[in-house]
Prior knowledge:
Blueprint: H1 2-8, H2 35-45, E1 48-50, E2 55-57, E3 60-61, E4 67-71, H3 77-84, E5 88-93, H4 96-106, E6 113-118, E7 131-137, H5 146-156, E8 157-168, H6 170-176, H7 196-205, E9 209-216, H8 218-230, H9 240-253, H10 258-268, E10 272-278
Parallel strand pairs: 4-5, 4-7, 5-6, 7-8
Antiparallel strand pairs: 1-2, 2-3, 8-10, 9-10
Helix pairs in contact: 6-8, 8-9
Amino acid sequence: MRKLINRLLGGRQAMQGKAIVPQVAAAPRVPEANHFDIGLKDAGYDGWYRVDSGELYEGFAIRAEDVVVDVGCGDGGCALFCANRGAHVIVADIDAAKVAATTQRLSGTPAREVQGVVSDANPLLLPDGVASKIISMEVLEHVDDPAQFLRELVRIGKPGAQYLLTVPDPVAEQLQVGLAPEVYFQKPNHVRIIQRDQFEQLVADAGLVIERHSYYGFYWSLWWLFFWVCKVDLADPQHPLLNSWTRTWEALLGSPQGSLVRQRMNALMPKCQAIVARKP
Length: 280
């Protein structure tokens, strides 16, 4: 730090009879970083995308005999994992373009069958008891009526069906207030911040039995805070601050006690919370 301060100030030297003008050196260029690759690696430590065990998330295994419904599929990352396991995959989203793109993305996979449904989930255009695995990631914070939305998810599940539900964690969300653009907390984006106990209550009230409630993604909590102030394009988020943070986290993941630090930070300020639940 001392060397950095000296460099930024150009090594001030008093010169008799002359004004002292600090010479500010150019900030060192931080190499570009692949933020999303590091984020994916971090997710693996948190229990995501376990190819060897077939678990999309720890405790949520996908098998070829499963019928999986991904509600709010977005770009289809989770659906792709399930398709590669040979499952029958149904992707649903309010955005017709995303449904079309995701079904096309899955068309060359080992999936038994791929279907696309354009729906706002009020109601879901699917029959009762169709699915053995239901996924809904980062959707509840968007919908007008979370209880109604969950009822639809429960309706389409078979008895014994398993659910993977995620929402942003309230700690990270609250920190973004005043930093994120106002539209971040406006419809059709995040219209509510879901507290941890509230999330559990919503799931239990829908008639599901909670098997696991976990927290992950501290890396992304800070990344997004930095992203808002860097004002760069999300398609190519290269900035010295973001790159430094990603390189720091990458170094931590490779350090002897990195796992312990990561677990502690996930408990303190996770980006997301996840519930794995089952329909009785």
